[in-house]
Amino acid sequence: MPQSLHQIFGNKPVSTALLRRELTDFQSPRAHLALLVRRGELTHLRRGLYLCRETGQSISEAQIANELVSPSYISYETALSWLGIIPEHVHTIKSACLGRSRSFENSTGRYTYTQLPFEYFQLGQSVGYTSDGVAYQIASAEKALCDLVLATPHLRLQSPKAARIYLEDFLRADEDELSSLNPDLIYTLALAAHKKKNDLFHLETTLHRDYL
């Protein structure tokens, strides 16, 4: 019995080229791809990328986010929410990337990517795991917090006090989680940042002074 595409590729994003390689027995692989999408056996993620799925099978937004744009890692409010730093549930999956900033929307969700310079991008990443044990790249809590400060227009943390107000009143960050952060990593990130260095230094100071 021929293997299904899901048996071949698993529940993960796969390129159009690899899919067509498995569909050479069909007169029109492109038409058969469209049929599989209508049947729900494939989910179109973006041009040239699909997700193989079995009916009723859950999806990993984290894995999809990493695959839509590579290299990238999940960050900003998304990572802070998933890591328990902020209370809000975030609907858009936000990531940092090396390529140009962009966004995608498909049946699995909305994904946005913000470009960062390499020297800063490479620091402070961590590894998370899906319920199926698949690894994905996500910012550490410290990196996600710094990324958010850098990416928020018109935000200026001009003193440690302003940084504390931002954490407690604007983000409503969990104080117990803040006490577990590593201010030294934030200092390292501030040195590598391409802008708002002083903002990150003030963030590092308030973490040292008020939460440890």
Kindly list the characteristics that best describe this protein.
212 residues
What does this structure look like?
With 212 residues, the chain is an alpha+beta fold. Helices cover 43% and strands 20% of the residues. The chain is built from 11 helices and 9 strands. A 4-stranded mixed β-sheet has the order 4-5-7-6, sandwiched between helices. α5 packs antiparallel against α7. The longest helix is centred in the C-terminal third of the chain and has 14 residues. The protein starts with a helix and ends with a helix. The mean pLDDT is 91.
Walk me through the topology.
Layout lengths: L4 H5 L3 E3 H7 L6 H11 L2 E5 L2 E4 L8 H8 L3 E3 L1 H7 L10 E5 L4 E5 L2 E7 L2 H4 L3 E5 L5 E5 L1 H11 L8 H11 L4 H4 L4 H10 L4 H14 L2
Parallel strand pairs: 5-7
Antiparallel strand pairs: 1-3, 2-3, 4-5, 6-7, 8-9
Helix pairs in contact: 5-7, 8-11, 10-11
Task: Put the structure in a nutshell.
The protein is of the alpha+beta class and 212 residues long. The protein has eleven helices and nine strands. The strands form three sheets. It has a four-stranded mixed β-sheet, with helices on both faces.
Radius of gyration: 20 Å
The proportion of residues forming helix, as a percent range, comes to: 40-55%
Shape: elongated
Q: What's the tally of helices?
A: 11
Low-confidence stretches: none
> What is the string of helix and strand elements?
HEHHEEHEHEEEHEEHHHHH
Distance between the ends: 61 Å
For the sheet with most strands, the description reads: 4 strands, mixed
- What is the averaged pLDDT score? 91
Structural class: alpha+beta
Q: Find the count of extended strands (DSSP E, 2+ residues).
A: 9
Strands of the widest sheet, in order across it, are: 4-5-7-6
Q: Note the beta-strand portion.
A: 15-25%
